[in-house]
Write a structure and sequence with these properties.
Largest sheet of chain B: 6 strands, mixed
Number of strands of chain B: 10
Oligomer: heterodimer
Number of helices of chain A: 10
Shape of chain A: flat
Number of strands of chain A: 0
Largest interface: A-B, 19 and 24 residues
CATH class of chain A: Mainly Alpha
Low-confidence stretches of chain B: none
Strand order of the largest sheet of chain B: 6-7-8-3-9-10
Low-confidence stretches of chain A: none
CATH superfamily of chain A: MetI-like
Structural class of chain B: alpha/beta
CATH architecture of chain A: Orthogonal Bundle
Strand content of chain B: 25-35%
Radius of gyration of chain B: 18 Å
C-alpha cells in the first residue's frame, strides 16, 4: 500500500516535470516574440475559474435544495441527463445572439460546460447513499436537515468530487471552444484560431500544449488537494 | 403488576404486497432482559428488529415501548448493524460523539465509552483503518454512548471470524451487565444465543412465527462447555434444525 502510494506520487512528479520541460522548451521558445502570451493565459484562466466557481456553487446548492426530497431528486435525474447530452459548444452561437460578443458569453459557456456534470454526479451520489447510514442518523435523533448535511452530503462526497473533476475538464473545453468561435480578441482558444490565418503551425502547437498543460494543472491543483484531505483520508478511495 | 414490560408486541403481521413475512408474533420484553431471537436465514427476524427500531411499520398489530406506540426511530433505542454503519468521514471519537446531545461533556462521555470497548489508543483513527471486530466495538460504543434504554442488535458479530466472535460475546456481556440495558439481539448462531441470552426465542422459517421459547438460567458464570449450556444448546438446535431441515 505505502509503496504503491509512493510510486503514484513519484509518477505524478515525473509526469509534471516532463510536461514542464516540454512546456518551457516548446511553448515559451515559440511564443517569446509575443509577450502577449501571458495576457492570453491569464485571460483564459480567469474566465475559466469564474465560470467554474459559479457552476460549483450553483451545481451543489441546487442539488442539495432539490435533494431534500427523494422523489424530486429522482425526477431531476432524466432532466439533467438530457441537458448534459448537449455539447456545450452548441450553446455558444445561441449565447452570441442573446448576450453578444462579451466576456459574459464565454463565462456562461464555461458555466454550462460544468454545471450539468456537477449536478448530475452530486444527485447520483445522493441517490446512492447507504440506507443504513441514514437509518443510523434517524436512530441518533437527527432531523431531515441534519441527515442531509451530516450524512447524505459527506456520504456522496466521492461522486461530488467526480462531478467537480469532470466539470474542470468540460469547462476547459467549453472555454477554448467559446474563445475560438469568436466571442473575444484574447485567450488561448482565440490565439490558436487566429494563428491559423498566418499558417503559424509552431504557435498553434505550442498554444495547444499550453492549453493541455493548464487543463492538467487545474485538475491536479484543485482536485488532488481536496481529495487527499477528504475521501483519501476517509478510506473511500 | 409484577415485572415491568418495556417492549410489547401484539399480533405483529408484516406483508410485502401478498408475501407474508411475519405472521402474528407476540413478544414482551422485561426491563434489563437480554432476549435473543434465533431463526433460519431469511426468516424475517431482521425485519422484526427493524420494526422494533421504527425503520418499518407492521402491516397489522402494534408495538409499544413503555406503553407508547412505536411509529418512528427514536433515541430510546440504540441500533447495531451487522455491517457497522459507521460514518467513514468521522474518527472513532467523532462516531461515538455523534449521538451525544450534552454539548459540554460530549468528548469525556465518548472517551469513557471508547475506553469501555478498549479502543482508547484508536480514538483519533478513521474507521477504514480498523479491523471488523474493532469497527463493531466502535458501533457498540456509539449505540451506548447516548444512553438509550434499549439496544437492538442485528447479527452484530455475523461478519467476524470465530475467535473474534467469542471475544466480542464475552466483552459485550461484561459491558452490558455493568450498564443494565434491555437488549433484543438477532442471530442465527445457537452457540451465541445460549451464551448471551436470558431468554431465547426461535422463529420458524417464513412466514415467521415463534415456535419455541426458553429462559436460559445459569448458576454462576456462563461458559461454552458447562453441562447446562450443552443441554440448552441441544434442545434449541432440535427446534431450529427441524425448521431449516438440517439432519442431526
Amino acid at each position: 500500500m505505502g509503496n504503491e502510494a509512493a510510486f503514484m506520487k513519484k509518477q505524478r512528479v515525473i509526469v509534471i516535470a516532463v510536461l514542464i520541460i516540454v512546456f518551457i522548451i516548446y511553448s515559451i521558445y515559440y511564443n517569446t516574440y509575443s509577450p502577449k502570451i501571458l495576457v492570453h493565459i491569464l485571460k483564459s484562466l480567469s474566465r475559466m475559474l469564474l465560470g467554474y466557481i459559479f457552476a460549483v456553487i450553483f451545481g451543489i446548492l441546487i442539488s442539495v435544495l432539490v435533494g431534500i426530497n427523494k422523489y424530486i431528486r429522482m425526477a431531476c435525474n432524466p432532466i439533467i441527463s438530457f441537458f448534459m447530452s448537449i455539447p456545450t459548444i452548441t450553446w455558444v452561437p445561441i449565447l452570441l445572439i442573446i448576450t453578444g460578443i462579451t466576456e459574459k458569453t464565454i463565462i456562461i459557456a464555461v458555466f454550462l460546460g460544468s454545471f450539468f456534470a456537477i449536478m448530475y454526479n452530486t444527485l447520483d451520489g445522493m441517490n446512492n447513499v447507504d440506507q443504513n447510514l441514514i437509518r443510523m442518523g434517524k436512530v441518533l435523533g437527527y432531523n431531515n436537515f441534519q441527515i442531509l448535511y451530516k450524512i447524505v452530503i459527506p456520504a456522496s462526497f466521492v461522486q461530488i468530487l467526480t462531478g467537480l473533476k469532470l466539470g474542470i475538464a468540460y469547462s476547459w473545453r467549453a472555454l477554448v471552444g467559446a474563445e475560438m468561435l469568436g466571442a473575444t480578441q484574447y485567450g488561448l482558444g482565440y490565439l490558436i484560431f487566429a494563428s491559423r490565418k498566418f499558417y503559424d503551425l509552431n504557435r498553434m502547437i505550442s498554444t495547444l500544449l499550453i492549453i493541455a498543460f493548464f487543463g492538467y494543472l487545474l485538475n491536479r491543483l484543485l482536485i488532488i488537494i481536496i481529495e487527499e484531505n477528504t475521501i483519501v483520508r476517509w478510506g473511500l478511495k | 403488576m409484577g415485572v415491568e414490560m418495556i417492549i410489547e408486541c401484539r399480533d405483529i403481521i408484516k406483508k410485502y404486497d401478498e408475501l407474508i413475512v411475519i405472521n402474528k408474533v407476540n413478544l414482551s420484553v422485561k426491563k434489563g432482559e437480554f432476549v435473543v431471537i434465533l431463526g433460519p436465514s431469511g426468516c424475517g427476524k431482521s425485519t422484526f428488529l427493524f420494526m422494533l427500531a421504527g425503520f418499518e411499520r407492521p402491516s397489522k398489530g402494534k408495538i409499544y415501548i413503555h406503553g407508547k406506540e412505536v411509529k418512528k426511530p427514536g433515541r430510546d433505542r440504540g441500533f447495531v448493524f451487522q455491517e457497522y454503519a459507521l460514518f467513514p468521514w468521522r474518527t472513532v471519537l467523532g462516531n461515538v460523539m455523534s449521538g451525544i446531545k450534552e454539548k459540554k461533556h460530549r468528548r469525556e462521555i465518548a472517551m469513557e465509552f471508547i475506553e469501555r470497548v478498549g479502543l482508547t489508543e484508536f480514538a483519533n483513527v478513521y474507521p477504514h483503518k480498523l479491523s471488523g471486530g474493532m469497527k463493531q466495538r466502535v458501533s457498540i460504543a456509539r449505540a451506548l454512548a447516548y444512553n438509550p434504554e434499549i439496544l437492538l442488535m442485528d447479527e452484530p458479530f455475523g461478519a467476524l471470524d470465530a475467535q473474534n466472535r467469542k471475544l466480542m460475546q464475552q466483552e459485550l456481556l461484561k459491558v452490558l451487565r455493568e450498564l443494565n440495558k434491555t437488549i433484543v439481539f438477532v442471530t442465527h448462531s445457537v452457540i451465541e444465543a445460549v451464551y448471551l441470552a436470558d431468554r431465547v426465542i426461535v422463529m420458524s422459517k417464513r412466514p415467521a412465527k415463534i415456535i419455541y421459547e426458553s429462559e436460559i438460567i445459569f448458576k454462576g458464570d456462563r461458559s461454552y462447555t458447562s453441562g447446562k449450556y450443552l443441554e440448552y444448546r441441544k434442545e434449541i438446535l432440535h427446534y431450529l434444525n427441524y425448521e431449516t431441515g438440517v439432519k442431526e
